[in-house]
């Protein structure tokens, strides 16, 4: 309720005090645990209290034609003096904007760790230009994801987003209302990182304008075991972002660069991370440095290594007699 009252108060304040206003939606996309909830200040006034990761405001009326300071502070802030980041902006009257908070606050625990920042997209939309379409704004907000393409494979639309990198927006895609399959690939298009459903027709989204954000970490093990990578959707009405359902990749499409084991070195257990890959019908073999098999089991995402001698080993995922991928680890 407190958050709702604060939003209501700032809308009334800006609407009554300024003849010129602009429409602004703010989206919280910083996956750092230290920024799980933040406070947002407009100049010295608290505008959003305990604004949670992967949520969005509705479009708000903010003053235009004058410089305002948008500030991000920890969720337990007591005033504008606690702000971690301040971005001065001058909004254009009657324009619409989407503002996305990305990046890392913590000094350690994240790799890479681009600092917390606000990305501002002008010419935002609250509805599609054509009521028969769905207009989709794409934003790359995953700090450890490389430059990527988005390739539509469901109806054969092909590459719909080309070479988008962290912090960038791709201008609105005006898509016919249909159900799509989206492959996230590296910039060459040769390696598929993840695959998602975008059921625009099933959800009856005709006429909607949406923002789709790449969010979270491709490798949580290098990022304080934070939230995993996914595609999330913000609507103009705000609220919790909607996660697009993932589609498991086939083993033949497996990208070894997203396969990880942790902790490494290990003492009691090795955990296996292979996001988006169904390995349930596979097996795991552990071999020592002489090539001797010291452990075999059906695939599990957590393997007991407590009985192994100290030393260096290879953990291998097998499909029958074929090697899918292998990773070296140290047993302490």
From TrEMBL:
<feature type="domain" description="DUF4397">
    <location>
        <begin position="136"/>
        <end position="217"/>
    </location>
</feature>
<feature type="domain" description="Secretion system C-terminal sorting">
    <location>
        <begin position="261"/>
        <end position="329"/>
    </location>
</feature>
<protein>
    <recommendedName>
        <fullName>DUF4397 domain-containing protein</fullName>
    </recommendedName>
</protein>
<dbReference type="InterPro" id="IPR026444">
    <property type="entry name" value="Secre_tail"/>
</dbReference>
<dbReference type="InterPro" id="IPR025510">
    <property type="entry name" value="DUF4397"/>
</dbReference>
<feature type="domain" description="DUF4397">
    <location>
        <begin position="22"/>
        <end position="105"/>
    </location>
</feature>
<feature type="signal peptide">
    <location>
        <begin position="1"/>
        <end position="19"/>
    </location>
</feature>
<dbReference type="Pfam" id="PF14344">
    <property type="entry name" value="DUF4397"/>
</dbReference>
<keyword id="KW-0732">Signal</keyword>
<dbReference type="Pfam" id="PF18962">
    <property type="entry name" value="Por_Secre_tail"/>
</dbReference>
